[in-house]
Design goal:
Radius of gyration of chain A: 23 Å
Strand content of chain A: under 5%
Strand order of the largest sheet of chain B: 1-2
Radius of gyration of chain B: 21 Å
Structural class of chain A: mainly alpha
Helix content of chain B: over 70%
Structural class of chain B: mainly alpha
Shape of chain B: elongated
Number of domains of chain B: 1
Number of domains of chain A: 2
CATH class of chain B: Mainly Alpha
Distance between the termini of chain B: 63 Å
Number of helices of chain B: 6
CATH architecture of chain B: Up-down Bundle
Largest sheet of chain B: 2 strands, antiparallel
Order of helices and strands of chain A: HHHH
Largest interface: A-B, 64 and 61 residues
Number of strands of chain B: 2
Oligomer: heterodimer
Order of helices and strands of chain B: EEHHHHHH
Chain lengths: 132, 216
């Protein structure tokens, strides 16, 4: 795999987070938290959630890169962690594409009824066709 | 034969060629563990995404029973704990034992604050009859799927809370070792690894706060 397994070949400098940068990240995280709360007060419909996740991801990037030092870490450690986040995304997208669109076009209202709550917004009931 | 590097009080284990080799291997193991932690939490995030898109009304109704000020306070507490942990780690890397001890103690204090706030939140909800799945007994709920939101709330924050407690145990362990002056610029691997774990706990909460308390 990487060079880390070769003893002696890894005489790189350890990254030490400078105090000034630590406080700067802390300040940005506080600002991010205030922004998160403020963004929830304005109502922009379906964009509220993606906006909240965007701010959270910027905060997560700051914690990951600087507090955890991943930005200055070995490439393989970056790949491990970012790879795991990629898999979370794959799990969500694959599950959603299966569950939410399983019955689209197959004219089976039973499935929709099973999963649809009274306030469900996403899954539109599929009208049976061919009964005229 | 392998050199016997003596840095302070620490001898690297015999199956490592050098203390650098030991450090890099430890860190690699820690990142693999954190990778596993992300995957460990991932089913809950998948469940959240799916159920929220299926039952947006239940999530809207459920989150109104959560106090965003409590969640916000805990967010600030965890961010502060991440700062004190980062300062403790950089202290250890610079052989500043006193700073490491103070930083770790502060982190432990913030972790305790987080759990106290969580305790008040949980006890208030359980008092109202808000619990998981079949134990849910809050009257006046309009959406029949609202208990599902609280099941997710309790499982997600509960699993996160268990991680906070685990982190506290790990912090107590390195704090005791730091007080015995075991860490310095040459050897501080445990402090750095516990630091990584603690920042991960903060990372999860950064997402949980808007997902549960601020459903738009």
């Amino acid at each position: 795999m990487g060079h880390s397994a070769d003893p002696g070949s890894t005489k790189h400098e350890h990254f030490i987070l400078p105090d000034k940068l630590a406080f700067k990240i802390f300040f940005l995280l506080i600002v991010g938290t205030i922004l998160t709360v403020a963004a929830a007060q304005i109502h922009i419909g379906i964009f509220n959630f993606p906006l909240a996740m965007l701010i959270a991801s910027i905060k997560a990037y700051l914690v990951m890169s600087y507090f955890m030092g991943l930005k200055f870490d070995l490439l393989e450690n970056k790949i491990y962690f970012l790879g795991s986040l990629l898999f979370v995304l794959i799990f969500i997208v694959l599950t959603a594409s299966d569950l939410l669109f399983r019955e689209v076009g197959s004219n089976n209202p039973d499935f929709i009824r099973k999963f649809e709550g009274p306030t469900s917004g996403l899954v539109a009931p599929v009208e049976p066709v061919g009964h005229e | 034969m392998a050199e016997v590097a003596v840095h302070g009080h620490h001898h690297h284990a015999h199956h490592f060629e050098s203390s650098e080799h030991e450090f890099v291997s430890c860190k690699q193991g820690m990142w693999l563990f954190l990778l596993q932690e992300v995957l460990f939490f991932s089913p809950l995030f998948v469940a959240y995404a799916i159920f929220r898109s299926l039952y947006p009304g239940a999530f809207m109704e459920g989150h109104q029973y959560l106090d965003w000020r409590m969640g916000g306070l805990n967010t600030l507490v965890l961010i502060s704990s991440s700062l004190s942990m980062a300062l403790a780690v950089s202290g250890a890397q610079r052989s500043q034992t006193k700073r490491t001890v103070i930083g770790l103690s502060l982190t432990l204090f913030f972790a305790l604050c987080f759990l106290v706030v969580k305790y008040f939140e949980y006890s208030h909800k359980l008092h109202l009859g808000i619990s998981t799945a079949g134990f849910f007994s809050l009257p006046g709920i309009h959406d029949p799927k609202t208990p599902l939101f609280f099941s997710l709330y309790f499982v997600m924050t509960g699993l996160h809370g268990i991680h906070v407690i685990g982190g506290m145990i790990a912090i107590i362990w390195v704090l005791r070792r730091a007080r015995r002056n075991e860490f310095n610029a040459q050897y501080n691997t445990p402090v750095e690894m516990v630091g990584l774990y603690w920042h991960f706990v903060d990372l999860v909460w950064i997402y949980l706060f808007p997902m549960l308390y601020l459903v738009g």
